[in-house]
């Protein structure tokens, strides 16, 4: 028996949590508020079929789609990111500082390859995205949780944690956070960039939900306030284009982008070409604005249906966040209720959700009374039906 | 300035070599024997266009292609690997022990995530594939070279190196090796599996070229002789389907496959869905046998053209391997000739190759008189023209 690398032991606890949290979420008879998948109605399937025809037509990009490609990603997709996704948010950047990656999580993984040694401290939001914690565990980082308020990370707690733990990195999902749906305020974004510079800490800004905002006012990325290359911005095409395409991008300084590219080369050479070309043709063909409007309209209705149903059917004393975008709301049930224990009964009743406990790296039982509820995948009637079932279960618990 | 992880320093030397070796290989006016890309004529572009139409037609797999998918890869592709690629080679396996990965190199990367701690020794062939060494460097392994003969790794040298260095892993490309084009004999394959069991060492069998054999007799994978789960088989679809699709697979024991899947989940969640579905439809639609015959016929002619041209135009005393498949031959020029120094002059003459020196982890100047020559990308006339130019340069050097 050949021993595993030491990182494998560090991963076991979180890997088991991830395995349990999302287990069995493919049964179509269950109304699932688990997972974080976009609505199937939000996937531009017909359009992508047409773009495939164009790509593989004579004189098209068929050979390019099938041959090896550049480590950093194809130029026209990097340009689309710079011009259509970053520039409108106030980030002027050279497409050469953008690295195309195989999904948003790969950007986080690569940032760890470049910066994280075993034992390094990463400050994370409490609660935070458990799948990312699995990455941090693989790198044998020590995750230290920092308290969050309704408008994101508490800045006093953050500064204190920086002083106390000397972290290498702060990991944040500032907009429509996973799992909470909360958004970091403008003031706090600016403050976080200042703290990063003052204490020489890296900020990894993971922002996959920000582009599906359907109410409220847009906020600048933390990266806008970064004048000293302390912020790495990682984003994903999963919510605005397609998750199965496994496409994302990272924006960093030229030197860091070079290192991220070396780590990418030593992981899987480059990102698959056909998805990249399809995504570039989608943006550069001008299809994004209409698609974007359509999916925002879709999710707005679903969010409103879910929040109204929670208010109507969940027990008195339940609190929930009001996300202006993204896919999740976070319900805090009256203390003493146990969402972890309730889940098997919910599945019996053909309704599912993700129990909140797994999103806390504290691992001390907090979050037991919380649920992450995704309103992305179901139409309003199914949302109401599912929340009603959950409400009945909770009231009888 | 935030310090990089310590692995970044370990990667610099090889990353620079990889960067230099393959730099500037996209100029179409240059006859390039560098790179390792398949011929563009070997890419099933038209067929893939048709398969795309089928996938995105009403009632097709369009939504599946765009939505999140399983960490281990789609079931029908794993089944195609088991039934059409492994079973004919004498490997009976459960599709559940197969992990679909984003290109062959990702299989090597994931094996390192699961098994390699900093300082672990990996025995490698001398010469070996430099891009893989970049991965091993990222994991801060110590690569120890082992002498190779015309029929692959020298078994006495291998056993001695195992006794002396107590390696965690032996890395081998047994068939039509990169860079040398050499193939490990049947007897040595069996012996290697025995050594792995006897000394409790992992063998990573990287076998991306084996399916493009166009002369000689097929040999069983080392994995066939493995009765104790000491061999992990990593393979790629790059040479038989398409490199831009970034698809590969790994076969390991159930327990190791589980761990590889956890590392995959913490790297990029899963492999892109559309390339997986296209590849599954390609195999399960019965297109592979005809395609396979076509590309073998194509490469056979190109290999023969290159070997004949080397014999004709290169200086007396030049030796080269005779590969029964794959994409490379390895030319050893008369001692004293310097292929590294000659390359800028070759590029001036609009012909390119990969200098042999970079493939030796010894880094002591050996291989200076060697060239890796790929016959994959050019038709016979261009091969002859390019080799003639190189021969003239060598004779005048």
Q: In brief, what are we looking at here?
A:
With 397 residues, chain A is α/β, with parallel strands linked by helices. Chain A contains 13 helices and 14 strands. In chain A, a hairpin with a 2-residue loop joins strand 4 and strand 5.
Structure explained in plain terms:
Two copies of one chain form a homodimer. With 397 residues, chain A is of the alpha/beta class. The first copy, chain A, folds into two domains: 6-44 and 290-396, Aspartate Aminotransferase, domain 1 (Alpha-Beta Complex); 61-284, Type I PLP-dependent aspartate aminotransferase-like (Major domain) (Aspartate Aminotransferase, domain 2, 3-Layer(aba) Sandwich), CATH 3.40.640. Helix content of chain A is 43%, strand content 14%. The first copy, chain A, contains 13 helices and 14 strands. In chain A, the strands form three sheets. The first copy, chain A, has an eight-stranded mixed beta sheet, sandwiched between helices. A four-stranded antiparallel beta sheet of chain A has the order 10-11-14-13. Chain A has a two-stranded parallel ribbon with strand order 1-12. In chain A, helix 5 (104-115) crosses helix 9 and helix 11 (288-313) packs parallel to helix 13. The mean pLDDT of chain A is 96. Chains A and B meet through helix 1, helix 2, helix 3, helix 5 and helix 6 of A and helix 1, helix 2, helix 3, helix 5 and helix 6 of B.
